[in-house]
Design brief:
The structure is a single chain. The protein is α/β, with parallel strands linked by helices. The protein has a single domain (8-129), classed as Rossmann fold, CATH 3.40.50. The chain contains five helices and five strands. Strands 2-1-3-4-5 form a five-stranded parallel sheet, with helices on both faces. The longest helix has 12 residues, at 118-129. The chain is globular and about 30 Å long.
Amino acid sequence: MFLPTDDKALLRTVLVVDDTRENLTVIGQLLRPYYHVRVANSGQRALQVAHTQPVPDIILLGVMMPEMDGYEVLAALRAAPETREIPVIFVTALDAIADEERGLQAARWTTWPSPSNPQCWWRGCAPIWS
């Protein structure tokens, strides 16, 4: 299981975006011992948070959200010079291959399942933050 061990990891900021309170709680609990965690419960709020200090080092972005889904949020992030280079990982309950491929192409990193397997979260962070 990958766990951050250097002191610099404690300074990294993760923005978690999901419209489901339970997901925000579980993901926040997994990450807070190691990272500065900011949360947003909507796409609009995510865009506001992403443009304020501390700017996130990575964004864990829910796909299925009302009003503005994860793909729309990602498009807005990529359109802004201040946020276009922030790595984005889609967090989704969608499990169809087509959904995963769309997420991989859009986010350029990966997709993760909703927070049911904490160990995959740490393995997934390793290539991004190393």
